[in-house]
Each structure stands twice: as C-alpha cells, then as structure tokens.
Amino acid sequence: MRLSVIGCGYLGAVHAAAMASIGHEVVGIDVDERKIASLSRGEAPFFEPGLQEILTEGIASGRLTFTTDMAAARGAKVHFVGVGTPQQKDGYAADLTYVNAAIDGLLPFLSAGDIVAGKSTVPVGTAAGLAPRVEKTGAVLVWNPEFLREGWAVQDTIDPDRLVVGIGDTGRADVDPAAVLREVYHPSVAKGTPFIVTDLATAELVKVAANAFLATKISFINAMAEIAEVTGADVTQLADAIGHDARIGRRFLGAGIGFGGGCLPKDIRAFSARAEELGRGESVAFLREIDAINLRRRDRAVDLVVDALGGSVFKKNVTVLGAAFKPHSDDIRDSPALDVAVRLHGLGAWVTITDPAALENARRQHPQLNYVEDRDEAIRGADALILVTEWDEYRRQLSPDHASTLTEGRIVVDGRNGLDAGAWRAAGWTYYGMGRP
Ligand code: UDX
Questions:
Q1: How do strand 140-143 and strand 115-118 relate by DSSP bridges?
Q2: Atom 10 (ligand 1): residue with closest C-alpha?
Q3: Position in ligand 1 atom list of the atom nearest CA 390
Q4: Known catalytic residues?
Q5: Is residue 170 pLDDT above 90, yes or no?
Q6: What domain range is 44 assigned to?
Q7: How many domains does the chain have?
Q8: 66: which strand partners?
Q9: Pocket test for ligand 1, best of 214, 217, 294 (most atoms within 8 A of CB)
Q10: What is the CATH number of the domain that holds 294?
Q11: What is the pLDDT, as a whole number, of residue 173?
C-alpha cells in the first residue's frame, strides 16, 4: 500500500522504515532538511537499534523515500501524522503547533477516501477538533496511537502488543478505515495481535492513560524507596516481593532516579492540563504528586553524592556514568541522568560524563560539562562514581576490581540500582543505592 508519514522524528522515521520493511511503499516527510538529507542517504539521524538496517534495506528496495515536499503525500492511501507534541514553553499543556501545521500542510494533497491516521500523542478531544478540516477534502481522520519504547522502537512498531484505532462518525459509508489499517498492519493482525477499534476520544486517552499508569508505577516504587530510606528497608527486595503478585508485576518497579524522556514527563503534565480544562483536574491530581516524587529522586541522588563526599562536592572529581534518559537511546530530553550531572556541576564538582550513545546530544545542550567518550578514561581519578543510565557497559561489563585500578576513589552511587552491591562492597567500595541500606 502507498503510505505517507508526516514527521520523521523518533516516531515517524521508525514508523516509515518499519512500514517499508513489511512491504509498503512509504514516503517520509519532514520540514527539517538536515534530517531528511540524512534519512535519504540511509543514515539514521538518531540512535535506535535496528533502525539503520531497515532504513538501508527500504531505500535499496526503492520502497522507502524521504522528502521535505508535502506534495509527495499525494496518492498515498494512508497518511500517518507522527509529529512532536512537546510541553508548552509557558505551561503544562501540549503544544499542538506541529500537529496543526502537519494537518494544514497535508490538506491540499488529500484525495477523497484517503485516511489520515494521527499517531502523535495529543490531548483528548484534539482529533474531534481536527476531523472537520480533514473531512472537507473527502478524507477520513482516525487516531492510531503509538506505544513504541525508544531503544525497542523497531520491534515495537513491527510487532506491537496491541493496535488501537479510534474512528469518529466519518459520514462515509464507503470508507472502512479499520479494514484499511488492518491491511496496513497485516503481519501483526495475522499473528493475532489485539486490534482494538474504538472512538476517537478513547484512542487518544488509551495512550495518555498508559503513560500515566507507567509513570505512576515508577513513582510508586520510588515513593517506597523514600520510605525504605528512613526505615532501613531495601526497595529492590520489596519490588521483587510485590512483583511476584501477578496483579502487580515486577516490570516498571525499578526504583532509582526516576523517569525522563520525550514522553512520560510531558504526557502526564499535558494530561493534568487537559483534565483541568475539562473541569476534571481532581481526577488526575495525583499525577502532580507522581511528577513531584519523580523529581525528588534526582535531588536524592545528588544528596547521596554530596554526603558520600563528606558534605561537599566542591572541587571533587565526580564521574557520571550515563547521559541518556535510558539505555539503548541517545535521547537526552528531560534526562534525569543529565539533570543530576548538571546539578553536581552547579555545586562545584568537576563533573566528567560518559555515555555510549548520547554524548554528542548532551554536549550540544550543556557545553559547559566535560565529556569523555572512553569509559575507563572517564573513571580515571574519580573521587566518586555515579551510575545514572543503566547501560550494560556500566552495569554488567564494569567490574569493581577493574574500576579500582583506574582510581583511588572508592565511592559508588547507584542511581539505577543496577550494580551488584555485594561485589562492589567486596572490592572495597562504599556503595550507595536508591532506597537501599
Ligand atoms: C514510554 C512508554 O513506555 C511507551 O509505551 C510510550 O510510547 C512512550 O513513552 P520511553 O519514553 O521510550 O517509552 O521509555 P520507557 O522505557 O517507558 O522509560 C521511561 C523512563 O522511565 C526512563 O527514564 C526509564 O529509565 C524510567 N524507568 C523505567 C524507571 O525509572 N524505572 C523503571 O522501572 C522503568
């Protein structure tokens, strides 16, 4: 099928390449010329495992192209809109500038019977507001939220847990958007992936509710970490124990410096803002608390380093292991890791940051910090280490004995509870976890 994908960021670029990889003919469209130039050369403009391969394959097959020219969308049967909806500069609500611009830019190139499938995460009610504009062209607007996780984006797109399509009252009996989208996602549908057809508002809400739930789960365990810290309990054992209850589950109960990234933080804020607009602010008032708990964990990690170094980090060498908001990603949007590094720098520490993928992005955003690519070089001479992104390079592949050969410092703060505390202690290090004795 001929498809267009408007917006070629973390979501759109992966979606375009993944759709080509399952046999569709796809054009990816974005206003960012540098991004399009890079994608057209078959170079992934960001780090995402597996993307490079399907990009190269798609371009070589001739089924995948990229352009800045919206006119290229003409003739596609489904137009996916996957542009960003960042947090507004002066508030919590989502900024819909890019969604509106994408829809307006697309309108002249739509034909009767086309399907516009919104994938961006938007406040509930957005699709219903956009639908009349799209329907004037004879096309139909549906909402098809995306649940991909960075680092697993290719796999999540090709083989998702579920597919959700929200369809409004289109007034067109001749167009069956659900059938068309079933055809688009045919490999998943054929293997029995749940395919949920619903209304526009439910589809929009499914996405924000899922992210709100995940954020709540993380902040719940981080709240337990705060209690563990004053009682001498161990939050990792607590999480293991409650996680055995299938109703609770162990996933997303990783206590540490909390969540970040381009989705969870801004999505829960946008949800609060939208609920308030709807007169139901109290229904999700707890999300403010979820946000507050999350941000407190960054303070806690900084305090642990300060305390471990005798009350001040001034002129102390602190090596920060990680900059990305999570492993397998070069994304530093709202990264708790980078935030901790910046705060330590602000307290006068000599901060050295290392990360296998995100250094370039981090350097661009915070040029004042010291970045060292080589992990061992970064550790050399450190008074304290702090693990903030649980890359395997630090979590599994860095043995405490090896670290001991690189520095005299013997303090390690485990901001992700990812290290083997016993092994580090046995090697003579003073280990500090998050919510652990
Ligand atoms: C999230 C959702 O998982 C995804 O479904 C949605 O489409 C987009 O938002 P993503 O932002 O890629 O995906 O990251 P995710 O894997 O959810 O992690 C989010 C943050 O939570 C990371 O900073 C991670 O380190 C943190 N996290 C995750 C924890 O602190 N503890 C955990 O137990 C799990």
A1: parallel
A2: 149
A3: 25
A4: 263
A5: no
A6: 2-197
A7: 2
A8: 28
A9: 214
A10: 3.40.50.720
A11: 87
